[in-house]
Amino acid sequence: MTTNPTNDPTPHTSATTLEAEAADWLQRRHFWAWSEADEAQFNTWLAQSGAHRVTYWRLKAGFERSSRLTALNTQTSFGQPRPQAPKSRLHFFMGLAAASLALVAVLGVSNFRLTSQNTGTLYETQVGGRQTIVLTDGSKIDLNTGTAVRVKGRSAQVLHGEAFFQITHDEKRPFIVTAGKHRIVDLGTQFSVRTRAKELEVALIEGRARIDVPNTPSAHAAVLNPGDVAIATSEKISVSRKSQQDLSGELGWRRGVLVFQNTTLKAAAAEFNRYNRRKLVIADRAAKLTIGATFPTDDIEAFARTAKNVFGLTVEHRGDDIMISK
Amino acid sequence: MTMAEVEAWFVAEILPLESVLMQFLHHNWRNEADIADLRQDVYERVCEAAQENIPDHAKAFLFKTARNLLVDRVRRSQVVPIDVTSDFDALGLAFDAPGPENTTIARDELRRLQSALDRLPPRSRQAVVLGRIEGLSGKEIAARMGVTESTVSIHLANGIRALVNAVYGAPEKPVKKP
Q: Are A133 and A165 in contact (CB under 8 A)?
């Protein structure tokens, strides 16, 4: 169907008009209550022509991408001064947490870092260690290798390392995880938090969570949905989406395994080295070979054997280290 | 092919080529006002064909379709023909050659999004930020901004269009300061 059936004398207006119609449908579906009648009406509109469909598909896909790449600084994005902003922000948080007193207490802690008042319980794992903590409300926290988490009531602070949270949701008392300057507020959730030198990685498995930096002039925030992985640095938050398979691979440590999919030997060795005192060293010429396999986190020898047998690489033991080269 | 399959193909194979397609259309069509319409016609044609059979080479198919459409238009409108074919080849499009363009596009995308957001009128920008970034519903946005729900709808729809066009690499429109 390439000619306009109504013989519209000004065909160039139709694409723009259709785009406006499609944008209206998209925002209605996304931001407002949506009934079965709405869905039926929408499907009728969609079925009307191929032009309706392609216009809607294009907007929808683009809109999804706009969220995955949200690295938007919410405060500085506003060119205009917003005198009402602090008040309304507070309202929003109060909506999230009816127990606003508890929340204010947490904000105070993360802001001023009054460690003397932050007397929660500290849980720590050594290199190669793994530990599951069950809290009184039924929430569970799995600590990965070389991790420290301080837990106090419905809040936890990840000091370093990586942890997986399965939170028993309580509307009135959201569970709050802090790591550095960032804060993650659970909205009914399973997620992992991993700290790196200059960034924080949050992967959301189930439910919803919000990540932000409380009380900073350049506050930035993102709402995460299942499959979203957020990388937060001091400047920005970027969100990308991973497949279920990739995510379950990344969380293999909870089962005591490392899962590699198209992983370079260099990256795989870096993962192993998080778990073991004995270190793998990969020579540059072998670093870019890729591997797809699952290993126990502590079986550094199995990895070396694979490198030798599958790739024909040279494996040498030097003291505690294992050198792999071409 | 089901509609869902056509949509998935369209999103994965065709939409990422939009900035190259737009370049091609701008290059070969004088009347700027027709471009959005042409793009939509091209998309409609490729999706219609994909309903029968998903084309093997998306990029080659997309540009063949675009060229045919322009040739049709030239014939129908009887304006002075421009040499679509030679210009098309002069563009030097390497069909389906894996290029670095995708990664570059991904990196640029963020910058374009931010700049599209900055260029929105303030109220529209606020609605988008509240909805998209803070995750509020339409009702909550209306309450927060103190405007009617239908006004929020208009702000959101305009914001979506601006962001989406930025995602696909539309050239930046002149800044409109409120």
A: no
Interchain contact B5–A (C-beta under 8 A): no
**B112 is written with which tokens?**
């374009």
Residue of A nearest to B143 (CA): A88
Q: Which of A54, A74, A77 has its CB closest to that of B10?
A: A54
Strand partners, A325: A314
- Residue B29, pLDDT score: 82
Q: Where in chain A is the domain with CATH 3.55.50.30?
A: 256-325
Q: What is the mean pLDDT of chain A?
A: 74
CA distance linking residue A6 with residue A302, whole number of Å: 70
Q: Give me the sign of the Cα torsion angle B134, B140, B146, B149.
A: positive
Q: Where in chain A is the domain with CATH 2.60.120.1440?
A: 85-247
Q: Which residue of A66, A74, A89, A208 to mutate against B (max B Cβ within 10 Å)? A: A66
Q: In which order are the strands placed within the sheet that holds A280-282?
A: A280-282, A321-325, A314-318
Give tens-digit pLDDT for A14-37.
Answer: 888 999 999 999 999 888 887 878
- Topology given in CATH for the domain delimited by A85-247: Jelly Rolls (2.60.120)
- Would you state the structure tokens that stand for residue A326, as one six-digit string? 């071409």
| Nearest-by-Cβ selection for B122 from A72, A78, A92 | A78
Q: How far apart are the first and last CA of chain A?
A: 59
Check residue A25 and give its pLDDT.
94
Q: What is the DSSP string of A231-260?
A: EE-SS-EEEEE--HHHHHHHTGGGGTEEEE
Q: What architecture does CATH give domain A256-325?
A: 3-Layer(bab) Sandwich (3.55)
Q: In this model, does residue A236 exceed pLDDT 80?
A: no
- Which residues 94-133 on chain B approach chain A with CB closer than 8 angstroms? 106, 109-110, 113-114, 117-118, 122, 125-126, 129, 131-133
Q: A132 forms bridges with which residues in the sheet?
A: A142
Radius of gyration of chain A (CA): 25
CA distance B80 to chain A (A): 19
State the alpha helices, DSSP H only, in A251-290.
265-275, 284-287
Whether A229 and A203 have beta carbons less than 8 Å apart is answered as yes
Long-range contacts of A201-205 (CB under 8 A, 24+ apart): A201/A229, A201/A230, A201/A231, A201/A232, A202/A229, A202/A230, A202/A232, A203/A228, A203/A229, A203/A230, A203/A242, A203/A247, A203/A250, A203/A251, A204/A228, A204/A229, A204/A230, A205/A247, A205/A251
Q: Residue A202 forms beta bridges with which residues?
A: A193, A230
